[in-house]
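In practice, a research group might receive sequence data for several interacting partners and want a quick structural hypothesis before committing to experiments. The following worked case mirrors that situation: the sequences arrive first, and a predicted assembly follows.
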Amino acid sequence: MMAPLFKTGLIGSPVMLALAVVVGVLFGFTLERSGMGDARKLTGVFMLKDFAVPRVMFVAIVVAMFGNLLLGATGAMDPALLYFSETQVVPMAIAGMLFGAGFVVGGYCPGTVLVAAANLKTDAFVFIAGVFGGQVIWGELAPGMKGFLGITDLGRATLPAFFHVHPGLAALGVVIFAFLFFGFARFAEQRWGEREVSS
Amino acid sequence: MKGLELSTILAWLRRKDLWSPYFGGAVLGLVLVASFYISGQGLGASGPFGRITAMVSHAVAPEHTMEATYWGRYFVEGAEPPLLNWLSFLGLGVIAGGLASGLLGGRFRSEVLKGPGVSTGTRLALALVGGVLVGFAARMAHGCTSGQGLSGAAVMSVGAWIFLLSMFAGGYALAWFVRKEWIS
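A structural hypothesis for the assembly, expressed as tokens:
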């Protein structure tokens, strides 16, 4: 097992941090080039007008999911070393809904707002100020919410382990879900999307 | 390799039209695999916001930060410097990459992005409110659209999928009330 390169010790901290900048550049470039630096395009999914956000996301998820599975199956990368956060069902569902509400009201999320701010969008700078405000509030309230935040804790839970199925089958489920969503997006855009005005 | 000269690549990078979301998604997926392959972590964006908040909080009110806030963990004995990590340096790259794409594509200009039916003042006020909600929720969920929505979902984390589906639910629940902010 060679990878993850940093966790197996094949590269040290300075190389890892340099590569982080390189990967970040590719990430930021891809986001901007896909239209993810524009609050109007980002919120199009919630207006049922433009489904670029879930299309980009679900294609990326499927590609990365199979990429990881392939690297794991060939022994190139140890899947047990990949980081992901633990699951607390109820707090994460509530956080997700608050986040979605903030997304449609503010127009951005933490990654896309960096791309928008880099291109001088004034609303992005104001959103960033809000994010820092929200983080300060979190920092003050979180210690008092400890009990609530620990409920419905499933630990390091994955879909295949949770549903007792083979990882390949869980991956297939994700693919089917993505394609069903693409079908719905196509239908919604035809029905409610921006249409060329034929005079 | 006549067809793939530097000038051809430059011309492609300077095109004004956006990528198809399917192409952009595929590229993003490969970048995400590279992120896991190199660091063992996925892509993320909310991390450095928290680390910067922690450092400011600690500089302004060190005792309060250590005893009564979430941020104390970054300043205990033996803790790594808050910004010397994968996600913080990734964030620097995101700004540079987004800037490069915007400059090459002709989208680098000072403006307020909003629908036609809302005033600039209202749009900026709503941007602030949305930012507060997103900043709070991103910490509560241990990540944002990138850290949970992309990276966690790609490694089939249960919590990430709960977050992702709840995010769309929360957005749709409020969409009707803020439609004038975005569409005519």
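Before designing any experiment, note the following. Chain A is about 65% helix and 5% strand. The CA atoms of residues 57 and 140 of chain A lie 32 Å apart.
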